[in-house]
Design a protein that fits this description.
Strand order of the largest sheet: 4-13-16-15-14-17
Number of strands: 24
Radius of gyration: 48 Å
Number of helices: 7
CATH class of the largest domain: Mainly Beta
Helix content: 25-40%
Largest sheet: 6 strands, antiparallel, barrel
Number of domains: 4
Distance between the termini: 89 Å
């Protein structure tokens, strides 16, 4: 019994001591003064700003495009025979000037047949001259001159004008008129044996070589014009509205650091269904063959004036058409009316003139954020320096 009583006393004493220590600790904690709470400091953001001022702006339009020839033709044989090349080599890439003889299709046989036909015509006409001198004295001089002007190596001269019905009947009955026009036809066919260059250009493809035999209608080569070129420039529908026919255009080669002057020749009256772009065609004189068909350039159109607008960097706009403005030193969102979008800038209106517009992209900010503009910061620093100088 004595041992049990002794254990109870020990446990009770232990509990009493722990409770007393806890009470003293709480008492001492209660006597300690709590430190004053610090007030939350609102962080200020420094931003670049500019006052909204509207003015008239001439905004250029720029877009890439590909240069191509304004004329491209297939050179086709209009007669049958062997191909003879007297001058310009019949090779891909060979250059030629307008009027050069590109090739002939063995004309000797046709030329000899034409001379024989003219000889027969001279014989028929010589047999008629005595009858004309007797029966149609008023026309003798004309027909004598016509007979004398006929040269077997040259085209037939113009046939004398015949108004006398009896003379016309007389000539028709002797087949003089039909023979004359048949010879003119053969002369025309002989000319088709020789192909002349229709423009300054080059061969882009060659399908037959010198010495080959071709039939009538055979494709011999493909040629393109090189002295005048066109550039096809796809523009967004909005940008194309600012471009007019005849507008000057600057064509720039960024790789060669060269530029050329051209003008708008025409605009397509349809849009590409895939890109929704409208093609604008720029014509340029290719002096000294400095440009090559197929080359890519950048076209810069002068554009037209836009009234009462302002131009800002594109990265200042977010959510397509929203910007931050500063009202009472705090950020506020406003919606703008975008007029035109350029490569790095955009032109807009739609907010009140004189509004303080933020001119830089802001990340992780919300409306109501406290900001300090660069101008306000500069003025504060100036005042601080002046105060320190006085002291």
């Amino acid at each position: 019994m004595k041992q049990i009583d002794r254990r109870i006393v020990i446990v009770a004493a232990f509990i009493f001591i722990v409770g007393l220590a806890y009470g003293i600790m709480r008492f001492l904690i209660a006597q300690k003064e709590e430190p004053p709470m610090r007030q939350a400091v609102e962080v200020k953001r420094y931003v670049q700003t500019e006052k909204v001022v509207y003015e008239n702006i001439v905004s250029p339009v720029a877009a890439p495009g590909r240069v191509q020839s304004i004329e491209a033709i297939d050179i086709v044989a209009e007669a049958s025979g062997k191909i003879i090349v007297p001058g310009v080599p019949l090779r891909k890439g060979s250059r030629f000037n307008k009027g050069d003889v590109l090739l002939t299709i063995y004309p000797d046989e046709a030329a000899l047949a034409l001379k024989a036909r003219k000889s027969q015509f001279l014989n028929s006409l010589a047999n008629l001259l005595p009858d004309i001198a007797i029966d149609f004295k008023n026309h003798k001089v004309q027909f004598d001159a016509f007979f004398a002007a006929i040269d077997l190596d040259k085209p037939l001269p113009t046939f004398p004008e015949v108004k006398d019905e009896k003379l016309k009947t007389f000539l028709a009955s002797r087949n003089i008129l039909s023979e004359y026009y048949s010879i003119l036809k053969e002369e025309l066919q002989l000319k088709r044996h020789t192909i002349h260059a229709p423009f300054n250009g080059t061969y882009s493809d060659v399908y037959m070589q010198e010495g080959a035999y071709t039939n009538m209608g055979g494709r011999i080569a493909h040629a393109i014009r090189t002295d005048i070129l066109e550039m096809e420039v796809p523009l967004e529908r909005f940008d194309a509205e600012w471009v007019k026919r005849g507008d000057p255009v600057k064509l720039i080669s960024d790789t060669r650091n060269l530029s050329w002057s051209g003008s708008v020749a025409r605009k397509s009256q349809f849009v590409d269904p895939n890109t929704q772009s409208q093609n604008v065609y720029v014509r340029v004189q290719n002096l000294k063959n400095a440009l090559l068909s197929g080359e890519y350039l950048r076209a810069v159109f002068e554009g037209h004036p836009i009234e009462n607008v302002m131009e800002i960097p594109r990265n200042t706009v977010f959510n397509t058409d929203e910007v931050f403005v500063v009202v009472d030193s705090r950020l506020e969102k406003q919606t703008i009316n975008i007029i035109k979008v350029n490569e790095r800038t955009l032109i807009f209106n739609g907010i009140e003139e004189g509004t303080t517009l933020v001119m830089q992209p802001l990340i992780n900010v919300t409306e109501g954020t406290l900001v300090v503009t660069e101008r306000e910061d500069a003025e504060a620093q100036k005042m601080k320096k002046a105060k320190n100088k006085k002291e």
